[in-house]
Amino acid sequence: MGPQEQSNWWRDATVYQIYPRSFADTNGDGIGDLRGVADRAAYLAALGVDAVWLSPFYPSKLADGGYDVDDYRNVDPRIGTLVDFDAMVAAIHEVGLRVVVDVVPNHTGSSHPWFQEALAAGPGSKARARYHFRTGRGPGGAEPPSDWDSIFGGSAWEPVGAGQFYLHFYAKEQPDLNWDNPEVRQDFLQTLRFWADRGVDGFRIDVAHGLAKDLSADPLPSQAEIDEIGPGPTHPLWDRDEVHSIYAEWREVFDSYDPPRAAVGEVWVDDPARRARYATPAGLGQAFNFDLLRAPFEAADYRAIVARNLAQAALTGSTSTWVLSNHDVIRHRTRFGLPQLRDPSAAQELGQAWLRSNGIEPPEDRRTGLARARAATLFVLALPGSAYLYQGEELGLPEVADLPDSARQDPAFFRSGGREVGRDGARVPLPWKRTGTSFGFGDDGAHLPQPPWYGQFSVEAEAGRPGSTLEIYRQALALRRRLRDTEELTWIDAPADVLHFRRSDAWRCVTNFAAGAKPRPAGRLMMASGPLGPKHEIPAHTTLWLSD
Ligand code: GLC
Ligand code: CA
């Protein structure tokens, strides 16, 4: 690898997301740990990914699966130590992969020393100025300062006595930081250096569009008013222009390393032009594009999303990111087994309703879901840009829909009074073995219960079995590594419900989104996402990779 290639590794990387608590447990406490990740470095290398991204492993009260960070520069003792972290980075680097860690700058955990200090210090103090504290409305300040909703349900304001409230857009254990405060800014620069100095290659930035806030209005606008405004420069909370001055500072830190550290922002901003601003070389460099997470499995939708995002990426000189699953959504294999709705909020409602019914009677079937999931994955892996895979999708793992309420951990479940079932069903510890205690996850239980059918989706059950989802991923990732050489994509005319594009002389991708077979274009078959039918056909819900 030349130095140039080294600094551009992220442009077309395949990044495997690890949710550390649910990956592999080496000490039998039911919680995945960093040693578990180090132990599986060979598995990750054989899978053929280029990098791993670890969701938070920092000390945390786990009010939001670790996204409530109480110490940004340490490892949760239940997950390991800094020594384990260094050993894990070494093990991953040793097999030629890179390491990306999660940065959670929008909010700290409520046990963070800053927040504890703020609670003790009282109104008007320097300690409170690191967060967003405000006086309540009404007699004695008993009412919250505004009617804003938390994303997890309930009010976004939590009372602390004496008519004071603090802002938390997520759980109440996640107080929002005040990014106008220079101390907050300095501290995060230190955090970035801390991990970069330990050899981390890149950062994933949580809620990157939320840091800059303008709470100067008095009274504050209502939820209805800000919904009307929508994210952007005049919205008090989301996607304000000032947020980019934060990332300009971060970029200086990233670029002070050789090779420069990479970053990708979690940016829930629909307007691709606004989203692109996070992806400039002077900013984070790359932004997540979640369009495929919310799209039905339909050719027209996929084509429009690809075209739009490639055009945007070209404008900033970045590359696009493609995501079908992560720790926040229903696993795509299951999502694709539900009726495909074009309205993302209706699709979300449907998914939640199905989860609430304990996954009984799925409206469509698991086979359709799996076929579509593999077809979509091969489609995505053929696109220019980087692809983010979520642990377990390489096994075709379904969502665990029937978790008992007593086992649930997600604040979205608790704060919505059970109306939202939440995200635990995508976070159940991985099955490594067909049978045995926690299916090889560890020597004892699993912190979220695994269902009896789990073993059939284990690494042991799928490794080496021709046509298994794991073998399809391995084959596709090996081919992708060999074939990706340009960032070009050229569409080729195709019948309705089929998308066909060329990456190079040696690589074309054709996907049949329909429930019936379609004619197969000429070319040598390199691989298929599922079983093949007659030679002149692309079976239903199937992607083929072809060469000339
Ligand atoms: C991001 C994370 C999600 C978390 C939220 C608050 O959206 O992906 O898991 O709950 O931020 O930190
Ligand atoms: Ca453990």
CATH architecture of the largest domain: Alpha-Beta Barrel
> Bound compounds, please?
alpha-D-glucopyranose, calcium ion
User: What do we call the CATH homologous superfamily of the largest domain?
Assistant: Glycosidases
Name the CATH class of the largest domain: Alpha Beta
Number of helices: 16
Helix content: 25-40%
Distance between the termini: 29 Å
Supply the number of structural domains: 3
Give the overall average pLDDT: 96
Instruction: Please describe the biggest sheet, giving its number of strands, its sense, and whether it closes into a barrel.
Output: 7 strands, parallel
| CATH-assigned fold name of the largest domain | TIM Barrel
Number of strands: 17
Overall SS class: alpha/beta
Strand order of the largest sheet: 8-7-3-2-1-10-9
